[in-house]
Amino acid sequence: MVLFSTARILSKKLHQSWHSRQGNGLLLCFLLCCGGLPAQAQSDSAPDDRQRFIDARKAIQQNREADALEHMAALTQYPLYPYLTYYQLSRKLGSLPYPEVDAFLDQHRNTYLGDRLQRQWLSLLAARKRWHEYQSYFDPARADTAQTCTWLMARLNTGEEAALAEVEPLWNVGRSQPKVCDPLFKQWQASVHYTPALAWSRAVKAIESRNRSLARFIGKYAPEPAKADIERLVWLDRYPSEIRHTRKYGGNDSRSQYVVMHAIARLARTDAKQALQLWERYDANGLYPDQARRELQEQLTLYLSRQGHDDHAHALASSMTDGSSEKLQETLLRQALENGHWQRVQAGIRELPAPLQDSDRWRYWQLRAAEQLGQNHPPFAKLENEWQQLAQKRSFYGFLAADRLGLSYAMEDEPSMVERADQEWVANHDGLARARELYALDQVHEARQEWLYASRSLSPAQLQAAGNLAAQWGWHRSGIQAMIDAQAWNDLQVRFPRAYEDIVERQAHSQDVDPNLLFAIARQESAFAPDARSSAGAMGLMQLMPATARQTARKAGIRYNTPDLLTPETNIALGSRYFKEMLSRFENNAAHAAAAYNAGPHRVDRWLADGRDQLPADVWIETIPFTETRGYVQNVMVFSVIYAYRGGVEPESLKGRMPVSLDLPTNPVSSFQGQRPPELQASP
């Protein structure tokens, strides 16, 4: 107890003097890094303080109170001092030290540590069934679902039956909720608040979230008549072709109509033509709601187009008198590009909303269509000026335009210029100081949380200053994100760091791969976060799946364990080898190799089948079926150019990276009259 009280007094003194002393030290470091102060002004105390912090933390963990107090007395101005008081308090929460908890939460309100302690404290109060206290510490603005369920249960356990009226928004979602909510939901479902309409509503949300098992579970315990409706919905979600039994499913009530439309949409994924035929039978009486009807027609059009039924797709799209959605318009445009229907491309672009028409993407394709239709000569001389304007953009389409004109790429490189007042404010920011020290101590998760909390309150100029700081620390992921949040798109030095340059250059030389492509992939995959993990399980700088890494390591004779993927040396070594393998497989076509790196080589094999390997390179990329992969390939191509520029070398042209010609057939008007060419009939 004496240890904590003394530490708390020291912490309070630190809090009062923080800005006047520690802030100046951080400003000194900031100015030094930026060249504003001479090198001899740099302090040598940081490494010593970091070691003292480690020693103090260890002493707290080992209950060596005297040693902990001695270390803490020397760290009162160190940015991570609050973490030591937090560690102390965390170890004694079981004794329910209300005054100490209150003091810490008051002092560290709206900070990562404050919220972290509050979560621990609420969990303890719930475990001890301290329901009144739980309610007093609960903050709805900061609560997650589990805490909110516990709060409502606390109110019920203290006799407040009205809490049941607030359960429905928690229950009526398309996903499973935490198990701690189950007792609350059980009481709610036994009350008057639970109705067949709510059971149906949640089942629909579950189905639309592709959570059939949850919908089935809801149906199992749903009251009638929702129970039968949900069972029918789940059945047709699994077996949509059963919707062909029109007499069985042709009811006119809203639930029956939803079941029919959902089944038609599901069937369209595999057989859009049959789905369209069945829909025309169901829709013959015109009783379906207009908005839902339109949404289904758009889905049918999309799948008809993707499956090669272009005439049916265009006929259905034309029947929508109030126009098509942007997604549908762009899908039909890409289908027209793949089939060489340049008149459709030109007409379709003119129907896009003005912001889309003015985007680099559709400006490029409007110009390409004009050339293919013979409009690149008088009286269409202005096309050359439009090509020139597009070539001044730092984008995939701007670079393609520059290739067409034989011009150098426009880099639009403008380093951030931040006012000194903003630099000083950021240099004095407590949260950013803690983030830096945690990052230096390799406590990356805590560092990232401190950074996120701090960045919420920063202005665009302050974000740019913070981004420059992070870049100087070598924390490239946060520097990149800060510039994105500040919309400082032209600060190429921070947004495109040549991180881990020695490793990248060495592995590129070993594999005979352009290092700028490796930089581009690492930048796109993880923004140079060595600890990055995806929801699919990919790991590290170049986001390798463990199975892919294991196979690549075995081929290369490299000793490998899965945790090694979080070390830059191993990750880049294996990632560069795998990318080289993709380049070799796809005849050194960087666009195809990048697509394979993202979506898998077997998918790219399908996308190159049935004559699509003969498409012009820009058309092939634009018509990649996966939106994510399409953007991925375009980014890697552009990023490789930027990294060449950042390295001071002449970049290889995009045309050179994509061996399939950008030149198009000489016949500007397709003779297929709405049909896909015979060699392209198969769906990619």
Automatic annotation (TrEMBL):
- InterPro entries linked: Lysozyme-like_dom_sf, Lytic_TGlycoase_superhlx_L_sf, Lytic_TGlycosylase_superhlx_L, Lytic_TGlycosylase_superhlx_U, Transglyc_AS, Transglycosylase_SLT_dom_1
| CDD domains in alphabetical order | Slt70-like (cd13401)
Q: Where is this region: Disordered?
A: 665-684
For this protein, the parts annotated as crossing the membrane are none
What domain of life?
Bacteria
User: Is Lyase among the key words of this record?
Assistant: no
Question: Which residues are in the Lytic transglycosylase superhelical linker domain?
Answer: 426-492
**What GO terms in the biological process aspect are recorded for it?**
peptidoglycan metabolic process
Give the SUPFAM superfamilies listed for this entry.
Answer: Bacterial muramidases (SSF48435), Lysozyme-like (SSF53955)
Molecular function in Gene Ontology: hydrolase activity, hydrolyzing O-glycosyl compounds; peptidoglycan lytic transglycosylase activity
Annotated keywords? Signal
UniProt-listed Gene3D superfamilies? 1.10.530.10, Bacterial muramidases, Lytic transglycosylase, superhelical linker domain
> Where do the Transglycosylase SLT domain residues begin and end?
505-611
GO CC, sorted alphabetically, is: membrane; periplasmic space
Similarity comment: Belongs to the transglycosylase Slt family.
This protein's name: Lytic murein transglycosylase
